[in-house]
Amino acid sequence: MIPAPATLPELLRVIARLSEKRPVWLVGGAVRDLLLGRPVKDLDLVAPGPIRPFGVRLSHALGGAFFYLRQAQDTARILLRDDAPGAVRQLDLVALHGGTLDADLRRRDFTVNALGLDLLRLPSSLDPETLRRAVSDPTGGLADLAEGRVRRCSSNSLTDDPLRLMRAIRLAAALEWRVEAETWDQMRRLAPTLSRASTERVRDELFLMLSLSANGLERALTLLADADLLEEATRGPTLPNGVARALALEPWLEPGAWPEDLRAPLADDLEGCVTPPRDLRALLRYAALVLPAPDSDPVDLPGMEGLRSRLEFSTEEARLLRHIVLGALEALHRSSEAWSDSTRRFRTFQRRGDAVPGAMLLSMAASEPSEALRAHADDELRTWFHERERYLPAPLLDGRDLMSAFQRPGGPWLAELLDALREAQVNGAVTSRAEAETFAREWARAHEIPLPDEAAANPPSGDQA
Length: 465
Fold this sequence. Notes:
This protein has helices at residues 8-18, 29-36, 52-62, 101-106, 128-134, 141-147, 157-160, 164-175, 181-190, 199-209, 214-226, 230-234, 242-249, 260-271, 280-290, 307-310, 315-333, 336-339, 342-352, 356-366, 371-391, 399-406, 412-426, 433-446, 452-457; strands spanning 25-27, 42-47, 65-70, 75-79, 90-95, 116-118, 149-150, 178-179, 273-275, 278-279. By secondary structure, it is of the alpha+beta class. Helix 8 packs across helix 11, helix 13 (242-249) packs across helix 20 and helix 15 crosses helix 20.
């Protein structure tokens, strides 16, 4: 293993040295971002195949992990260790297609991504002006880059891979560029073909958009809607005001919108990931897009069980999304008196759990929030972050205690009794283990569950035997 390169130019020179004089080119977004003076996050490398010997040698030298992404296409990835230079954390390696670099670049999606830099002839400086003179540019990408224009490499670029319809929009939104007219016209004609792209790829591309800045998000969602791609991108129906509602959420995702004691815990919550890299902020933006109308009945809402299959979310993500949406609708239907009711709060915290903060933020975007709703949301969040153990107390008796005391196996009765017991704790009706035992026996009698001593005192009659 070699010492970790300290800078990106050093890393590129190490890669060139380890190629053992076989051609290797830096291509795609990394070249584009270097020319724009933007941070480079990932490196795309093209080299003559087979790619494995070079990739394994490179991964061993850099202390990374090599694995194939698509072995049939000779495409692999190297994940770098944490001390890699700058923000670069992975290298993608692709075998050269078409015989020459120019032929390979012409097969790519957009001209600004069809730029190549020969690492065996890497210039001494990576400043944009020097790079412009060194890059291969067979499709006119440098001119498009200078004009801030997203343009297809060829008339086949979008038909070869329908996901490029979304990628064009993300690129234009992130860089504040425009889509060239012929490219845009073809995108609108091909919008229905996005259904052919795999759900997982569509989801990942959508969530890259949902992770943009607020301004980038607005541009991305507006372009998706204008290109008739929004429903294909979300894999299901969205209400006509879905984009407006997603944008209305943005101010509530800013810590400054909330009282000072809520800002830090809310910021931590929004950065949390159930399934990395999709964080809660992006999930909330998605929820705002698909949230039913505010007057929908949260008790029996169709479609919520299908959230997982829409974009192949993980089970935990789908659960969180469902509870965020239902919790937001419940908040909008809740009376002022109900907000402060301790039993209601216990049931909400128990049922919605870690979705409570997201539900409160989403409820702010679902309609024009009244002063009362805003005050109630502050109080709910404050209670969740600073006092929730009061409403989710550790049970004084657990399921094993109750099954042993009643000499009965578990079942629906046990879940009901545990809920009733915790609710009594929250309301202050039960404050000790002895009181919990008394409560459990009284509850059992009221629900006609025989207690062990009573069963012994009243054995079955001969007719019942």
